[in-house]
Amino acid sequence: MSKPSISILPALPSDIHALSALENLVFYDEEFSTVAFGPTRDSPENIQLRADSLLKSQKESDEGTGKKVRYVKAVDLESWKIVGFAGWHFAQRDGKEIAQSEPVKEEEQGEMKGSGEGEEGKEENGWGIGANAKFCVDAFCVADEHMDRSVNYGSYAKLSTIVIHPTHQRRGIGSTLLEEGLKEVDQLGLPCVLGASPEGEGLYRRYGWEEVEAMEMRLWEYEGGEGMGLARHVVMCRPAKGNV
Question: What is the pTM of this model?
Answer without folding.
Answer: 0.84
